[in-house]
Write a structure and sequence with these properties.
Order of helices and strands: HHEEEEEEEEEE
Number of strands: 10
Strand content: over 45%
Number of domains: 2
Number of helices: 2
Strand order of the largest sheet: 1-2-3-4-5-6-7-8-9-10
Helix content: 10-25%
CATH topology of the largest domain: Lipocalin
Structural class: mainly beta
CATH superfamily of the largest domain: Calycin beta-barrel core domain
Distance between the termini: 59 Å
CATH architecture of the largest domain: Beta Barrel
CATH class of the largest domain: Mainly Beta
């Protein structure tokens, strides 16, 4: 019985030793470095744009969260009233996370949309493309560096029967707010 308890304690301690809280500072810092290449896109951004919903303005933040294990993007866009429709606000949330050797993102909004994305990052461009296994239209959200603190945003939609035929739905330009 004492051997069984000793073995159980040994296994338990090895499991807890692998938990992030018990890892050495060098191992924990590699988690923070995971998002270092994303730095040009992190921060709080404000801007205006146009597209199918109309002329609008908004803001988003893209920041590390859960001790730098993930990135979280909060976004809103406000559209003024027109002769055809009342003013409204669009809100959405995206959680970006590593999955194996890929980067994934899950998106939810106040219009009941849920989109599962794959993310691709290059020094001047960040592109989220919806999972082709997901039914319905395909979506692509691109952030392109236009200047040091300026991004061009393009949101595109492709019909289900022409998954690669993306057409622009919204275009916007945003500027990073100074960090405190």
């Amino acid at each position: 019985m004492k051997r069984w308890i000793a073995a159980l304690l040994l296994c338990s301690s090895s499991i807890f030793a692998q938990s992030p809280a018990a890892q050495s500072p060098a191992v924990q810092s590699s988690t923070k470095d995971r998002w270092a290449a994303w730095e040009p896109f992190l921060g709080t951004w404000q801007g205006a744009g146009s597209g199918k919903p109309g002329q609008g303005s908004g803001e988003f933040t893209l920041e590390r969260d859960l001790q730098a294990g993930i990135l979280v993007r909060h976004n809103f866009a406000e559209y003024p009233a027109t002769k055809d429709k009342p003013a409204y606000r669009h809100d959405d949330l995206m959680v970006i996370y590593p999955e194996g050797d890929k980067t994934r993102a899950d998106y939810w909004d106040n219009e009941a949309h849920i989109i599962h994305y794959f993310a691709e990052l290059s020094p001047d461009k960040l592109v989220f493309t919806s999972d082709p296994a997901q039914p319905g239209p395909r979506f692509r959200l691109s952030y392109v560096k236009a200047a040091a603190d300026e991004l061009k945003i393009v949101f595109e939609i492709a019909p289900p029967d022409s998954a690669g035929a993306f057409k622009t739905y919204i275009e916007a330009t945003v500027r990073r707010k100074p960090r405190p």
